[in-house]
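Dear colleague,

Thank you for sharing your sequence with our group. We've completed the structure prediction you requested, and as agreed, I am returning the results in plain text so they can be pasted directly into your records. Please verify that the sequence below matches your submission; if there's any discrepancy, let me know and we will rerun it promptly.
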Amino acid sequence: MNNDIKLAVITGGHAYDVVHFHQLFRELPGIDAYVQHMDDFASSRPAERAAYDAVLFYIMLGDKPTDGPKPWLAGKHQAALEALGQSEQGLVILHHALLAYLEWPAWNDIVGIADRRLASYSHDERLRLHVVDPAHPITWGLSDWPLVDETYEMADAGPGCEVLVTTDHPKSMKTIAWARSYGRSRVFCFECGHDNTTWLDPGFRQVLANGIRWAARRV
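Please find the predicted structure tokens below.
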């Protein structure tokens, strides 16, 4: 019996390198990823959405999700998102998904940042990432490492967040990776992940894969 983690990877609202993004998830061991637009996820039947062990968001959509007028095939975004946290299905918030739904309090609660407005961003910055807790399942055995990625200047992870990775880069938020809970769900947030330069990095891949496993309660 295949025991791979069944992962929904949700996109929308931001351009990305499709080929290399798909390649990233194909190469994460033990993870069976299904990349799809938010419209496709929202238009799926509730039982189909619930069948995923975890849902990873790589979206940067709107101020608030709505179920208002839109083509029927787009589904009901708000209803699909309001179901999050009602089960033990894991949640992973990757990179620009931290900036999705800026006017929606529920997304603030999922991410763990009350004010997610972006002060500035910068591409191709050379970061030194510090592993706060190398004993946590997500960062198990990792040491500090360098990474080239886009940075965000915004508020750091707030109360209720277990910070796992930080940086002291002057153009970045300090908290880079953190774990928390939302309802019955485990939530893993990871600021990194702009493009293939980052996606190829072994440290990034290890933290991402471990974060997915942790959120899905496999570790």
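Summary note from our side: The chain has a mean pLDDT of 97.

Kind regards,
the structure core
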